[in-house]
Amino acid sequence: MDFNDLLEKFKWTDFEEYIKEEREKLERNVDLLVKARRKFREKILSIDDIDDRLFQVDEKYFKRAVEELRRGEVTGVDGTISFYPTPVGYWCRIGVVAVNYMGERLNKIVYISDAQLIDTALDNIGEFLKNVEELNRYTPLLYRALMFYKEREIALDRGEKWKIVHGPLIPLEMRLGRLGVGGVLETNLKLAEKIVENRHIMGVLSSTRRLRILNLGYVLENGEYLKISDLGSLLISEIRRAPEEERALIEDFVEEYGDKVFVGIYKAFNKAYVFEASREFFREAAHILYADSLNNPAKGFPMLIDYADSLCKTLVNPEDFKRKLEYELLKKEGYKAFQALDERRLRWSH
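Predicted structure:
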């Protein structure tokens, strides 16, 4: 199918006419989706090696996971980041929250730090004006890499047996070298090695753009989990456009560690979630995530991570950070104070 064929599939019509047929079309399309799901599941179940890929929650592993959660042997770690663009660079605050259970109660520890990195190009304002279209050396992408690094470093340093982080074990930001400072990729890959070698840290994603993985989750029944691939296969598929030096570093990492982490997907309630865990303890990790997700029936997502995420948004709220900073600026400079431009406010007022 080329683009012109795709255009033909979209039949444009008057809104009033569309509304008349909308319900009937929705019902017809939903029926097709339900049938497609059943057929897709039948095809999945017919795969030769499906017994080595698709699993049901095991009562023995489940009971062990519940006990480990109650004893506080599992911690969930999540972070949040606040940016404030200033005339000399971004001011950034990073907060990381670690949560575990103390019996039936949730216990929290909050880590927080902030810094302002000055754009060194401002030292030569003439050159700055000539190259004004260049990116700021210290971009939000770099700050996000710092946040993900600190989340995972804190998780590794904590004493609980099992650690859950929000997102991939090695996020994209930790696999980039083009972030304006030296040694980014090398340092992040060293931490990635520790993550893999730890074997007791797992990552769970609240969302993914990988439609084919989502399709696999769609066919799962509650209490099932599926092994999709090893982490190395996914990393290799993402580095085709990376510069040669970066590609070589990631390929070396994949060769040594790529098959030591599995990517899977599990379902506790209505929604399935992608997770990454050690090849050696993949089953244990799936049961811990499943057991903790039963504590959160509204989302079917691990309660430890969901609670840590909520605390981040409450205790280290980006809007609060912005308001406090702007208040101090206004006290010092009054109407001359610089304030971050919010594009959402650039609208005609009536």
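Summary: Residues 341-350 have pLDDT under 50 and may be disordered.
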